[in-house]
Amino acid sequence: MTGADAPLVAVFAAYADRIDDLNARRESARVLSRDVTKDSKNTIFLLHRATTGDRDKLLRQGATKLETIRGKIAKWTEYIVSEKEYHQFLYSISPGFQEYVEAEAFLHYLNHGTLVTKDEIQLGLLRCNADLVRISLTTHDYLLGIADLSGEVMRFAVGCASSGNFDGVKHACVFMRKLLAKCEYLSGMGRVKDWPGKVEVMRSSTIKVEIALYKLYLQKLEFPDRPLTLSSDAFERSSDQRESIGCT
């Protein structure tokens, strides 16, 4: 290498250092995303116990866990230093964001019986760390997280049916019908990867809850003096009855 080549070598060495730094920070963000995913799943498992345990206590514990998760999401700002890098890192952190949205939406449903909005989730993140303004929740991650919410509401309805909570199953059914209608409306957009499959799973979950509600209602009419109950097996059998009610 001649002296004339030295400036060019220095330029490429600087590029190599920048790429190494970018890759190291991307991997750190990916590892943190796995932690967010795991903690969000554990929070959802905890919240499902609210159907049989101390509801208020478990919901408070769930809120505390989500606050801890928001703190971990805030650490992404240590690895993502600009909005441009955020879009470069997005593929690595999307799974964590989607699972967090699902957990946040499930807690919101249990507390209020409604669907949490994208702006409400983003506001909660900003309250945790104002720097998260450059790591804003994308519509893509919000929609995919909300699509998975239907499965959690269906499982919640299973718990309600098993304990004879007719109103809980009815509310879950109405909520899921409305959510499915909105998501089906978006199906024609074709802008969200895996969206048709998500909607199909949502439709299947909604049908299971509809049939379970119908069975509980029949019990209520035929045996008004008996406690209402419906085993989880009834939900599994519901999927086999889809064709009998004209569903495809």
TrEMBL record:
GO molecular function, one term: sequence-specific DNA binding
Primary localization: cytoplasm
Protein family per UniProt: Belongs to the translin family.
Keyword Cytoplasm listed: yes
InterPro entries assigned to the protein according to its UniProt record, in alphabetical order: Translin_C, Translin_fam, Translin_N, Translin_sf
An example Gene Ontology CC term for this record: nucleus
Pfam family, one: Translin
Record keywords, A-Z: Cytoplasm, Mitochondrion, Nucleus
Protein name, UniProt field: Translin
Ranges annotated as spanning the membrane: none
Highest taxon in the source lineage: Eukaryota
Lineage, broadest ranks: Eukaryota, Sar, Rhizaria, Endomyxa, Phytomyxea
Compartmental location: Cytoplasm; Nucleus
